[in-house]
Every structure is written in C-alpha cells, then in structure tokens.
Amino acid sequence: MDAMLKDLANGEFFLLTESSLVGRKPYCQIFVRDPKVSSEHAMIRRRSDGSFWLTDLRSLNGTWVNRKRVTNAVRVRAGDQIQFGNARFDLHTDVSTTETGTYGGHSRTEEEYASGETIFLVSDVFEFSQKCEALPSVVLAEIMGAWYCEARKTIEKCGGLVDKFLGDAFLAFWPDATSESRSLALRAAMEVANLGLKISSDFSEILDSHGLRFDNGVALHRGEFAHGPVGSRDFTLLGLGVTVAFRMEALTRVFGCRVIVSGQFLKDHSAETFKTAPLGPQKLKGIEQMVELFGLDIEGC
Q1: Domain check: are 73 and 215 in the same one?
Q2: pTM for the model
Q3: Which of 107, 128, 156 is the last residue of a domain?
Q4: CB 185 within 8 A of CB 225
Q5: Total domains, the chain
Q6: What is the per-residue pLDDT for 295?
Q7: What is the DSSP string of 68-104?
Q8: d(CA 126, CA 147)
Q9: Does residue 301 belong to any structural domain of this protein?
C-alpha cells in the first residue's frame, strides 16, 4: 500500500518510504520550510504489516495528529491531519506511483543515475526480533526513532549522508573515498558503535525491566556504486558494494566485534590512529570472491 502526505497550503505531496524523515534539512524526505519545524522534526515509518507510525524526534514545537500532540509513537491512517510546526498535511493511502506529478518538489518522471567509488557504512541493531516481541510497538518506535536521530547526526557530523533507514538498520555513504573521508568514516563508525550505550542509558528503565540491552554492529567498505530512483519511489544506492557491506555487518555477531572494516577500505590508507586486528579472508553469502576483513578497536572511543 502506497501512501503520501499532502501539504494543505500548496498541494505539494510527498510519497512515504520505509522511513521518512520530516524536517527543515534538505536531505529530509519530507522537506518542510516552516521556521517552526526543527531540522529533524519527526519520523514516519512503514511497518511490515503496511501500517504507518509517526514518532516526534523531540522537536521544539511538537507534532500533532488530529489536533492532539504526539508524545509517543502513534499509528496514522488515511484521513488523519498531521501538523509539524505551522505546516499541516493530510495522509492519503492507495496512491498510484505511476502517475506523473510533483513529489516533494522534485519531478519523478525523469530518471537520473550517478556512479563512482564511495564509502559504505552499514549498522544494524542486535536481537531486534527479540525486542519486537518483548516491547510495546509505541515504545519500540520511540527507541528506534531516538537511535535513527542520533545516528544521522553522527554520520553528518563526520561528513557522510544517510541513504536509507531499513527497519532495524541503516545504510550511509560518503560522496568520495579520499583518505580524509575514510578517516571521518572510521570516526563515525566508532561513534555509531557506541550509540547503543547512550540509548541503553536513555531507555534503561524499560529495557532493564525486560532484560534487554541495546547494541548494534557496524561495517565499513569501499567500492563502486550507482545512485538513482528505484520503482519511481525513492533514490537509493545500488551495487555489489552495498551487498558486501551488509554481509560484513552480519559477521560482527560471529566475531564478537562491533566494527568490521574491509581490506579494500583500508587499502592505501594511513590509519595509524586507529587500531585494527586481522580477521582473515572471509566468504560472504552470495559473494564469489573472498573478502579480507579487520576488526576495529573502539576501546576508549
């Protein structure tokens, strides 16, 4: 089921993706120019059952659904009126994505692709299914919203961009693969790996009551990419490098290492300020060639 938010002031509409960030930053999927809207104001996530859940990201002026302020994650449905600052939207479902029109100020009928070499960063929450079973949906949405917000801030502070949030994971990248960008990506990886400590502290009461911890793994890889529209819905990174990065991150659990870096990432890069331990060549699922991996020491970060 496709859905969109329609701006009641100008008729502009925004297709909702798996995770749609609302705010004044140009990278937000729902870009709102209202000065009373925070840089990263709210998040709308599509769950596996097709429902949409709205979380306020601790915005200054709040988020409202049908004139009620949002304090916890809430489910939003067709016909709901949603307000961010002074900007008001209606939620519509069963939207055709094949029709031409203006989506968030950008034409979606002209396909544009970019390609080159980039740095991929993937992070995934450990034991997410267990958390889904143990925690109420509204609580889980609030925790994940906080993680998304902190992760995005960390990535952008280090010069990267978040390409997509995928339920319990996200994919980020750096526009180039220079030595400077790789140093920044290494710093971002260490900080993202330690975000679990902050989230566990911020939500300690509810997590402790269920015997849960919030931990996440991180993978860094360098490779070729293409960036463009998929299914006329959203722009995303494509290519073998994306698959390698996700397969690498899955091994953080196997090796008990919270950050794994590929040999390709480290090649021709002076990383003397970062300590790594060789994990050896590894066979990744669906990847023909062996991939040399290293564990990153994040102690003291």
Answers
A1: no
A2: 0.65
A3: 107
A4: no
A5: 2
A6: 93
A7: EE-SS-EEE-TT-EEEETTEEEEEEES--SSS--EET
A8: 13
A9: no
